[in-house]
Design brief:
Elements lengths: L7 H17 L4 H21 L5 H26 L5 H19 L10 H23 L12 H16 L6 H29 L1
Helix pairs in contact: 1-3, 2-3, 2-4, 3-6, 4-5, 5-7
């Protein structure tokens, strides 16, 4: 199924000059990973503390774009500049799940959004990332299949935040969007498991 992840090589190509400068400056991949977590935490705290304000929601698309860039940069720094470490691999995977939780769970406080659905989407995000990692555990590759991988979730939540931030009231349409995200998260888990097992067949 199509996924925003398919555009990752082009996105990385745009970031190469920045990665080279960061490497020259001595910035480590782990520092970039931690910066991404910090950015997500700061945005999540803003949404949690200001659930009736529009500005945190309007900033959400920008925060998610920056987070995607940081996620790409840390991997490029590690692979292309010989800075791959075991700790970095662990931080990279844990960082994605932690960042999703601290950034998306506060949306449950937004008036009109069903907290239960927000929680289910975040749980689905964690399970889909776990399903991707378990591919390695059974001898397959780390799976990034969609339709609702990390980058896809960022697009969905960024769009949702922008619409709500522009003043559109939450309601049955947001319930439908979140319910669809729950379904797509479950489908993502199934796809990643099937593709990992398919590699071993």
């Amino acid at each position: 199924m199509p996924s925003v992840y398919d555009f990752k090589p082009r996105f990385q190509g745009l970031l190469h000059p920045l990665v080279s400068r960061l490497a020259t400056a001595g910035v480590t991949p782990n520092q970039v990973t931690l910066a991404g977590i910090g950015l997500s935490l700061a945005a999540g705290v803003a949404i949690f503390c200001q659930p009736y304000a529009r500005w945190p929601l309007l900033l959400l698309p920008l925060v998610l774009l920056l987070r995607m860039a940081l996620n790409a940069v840390d991997g490029m720094l590690a692979r292309e500049h010989g800075r791959v470490t075991a700790l970095g691999g662990i931080l990279n995977e844990l960082g994605d799940v932690i960042s999703d939780a601290v950034l998306y769970l506060p949306l449950a406080r937004i008036p009109g959004l069903l907290p239960e659905l927000v929680v289910l989407v975040v749980m689905g995000a964690a399970m889909s990332e776990m399903a991707g990692v378990t591919g390695i555990q059974v001898g397959a590759s780390r799976r990034f299949d969609g339709p609702l991988g990390k980058s896809d979730r960022a697009l969905w939540f960024g769009t949702l935040g922008l619409i709500l931030g522009l003043g559109v009231e939450a309601g049955s349409w947001t319930d439908g969007v979140l319910a669809l995200m729950v379904f797509l998260s479950a489908l993502t888990v199934v796809n990643r498991v099937r593709r990992a097992l398919g590699e071993l067949a």
